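Sequence, structure tokens reproduced for reference:
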Amino acid sequence: MKRVLVCEDEDSIREFVVLNLKRSGYDVVDVNCGEDAVKAFDATGDDFDVALLDIMMPGMDGFAVCRSLRERSAKIGIIMLSAKSQEMDKVSSLMMGADDYMTKPFSISELVARVDAICRRVSLMDSQKTDKGDEITSGPFVINLKSRVLLKNGKPVDLTQVEYQIMEFFLKNQNTALDRMTILRRIWGENYYGEEKIVDVNIRRIRMKIEDEPSNPKYIITIWGYGYKWSSGE
């Protein structure tokens, strides 16, 4: 059974979310503050599949919890919840390692659908069968499809599940222009409700990890008005 950590300080919202996730077949642990969210995560030994984090909380806010959980796990899916709709909240959440963002008030069916999508993505990656040593090489990069590790000049690059999947998609389609919608549907699923901007923010995050000069990228090339293309940099 998939496990979800819900961190929300408003009791009525938290209880409603927990009830519907349980009805959908999830094992749910809920807390009302950021400090308890980190404690719950640490107590389970990285046993959660998804975390739902409210941004605006007293004490340790959702941004801090997101950053803390992401430092502990690249695998867990993180969805941020907030009453704010400002663009910077979305960008900040994603840059800190969140996989998705929802603005209150949200449809509970849409929230469950997004949790479902993250769990399917993780399960699909876990079930991928590849031969030992199955690798793709491009310039200084080597991606191992079995261990799901990306190396640059022989050193591992710390990627989240989403970042890894984007990199795998790029390296399997080198020198091919990929539009944002194609990337969005490939990584987040055909029925994803969110915005294409989530692709741009994740690309920015990946560039900060793999590019020698993120502001002047030579591996992930922007195709203006369209999307992105992977180049070996040679």
Notes: The helical segments are 11-23, 34-44, 62-72, 87-95, 108-127, 161-172, 180-188, 197-210. The chain has a mean pLDDT of 89.
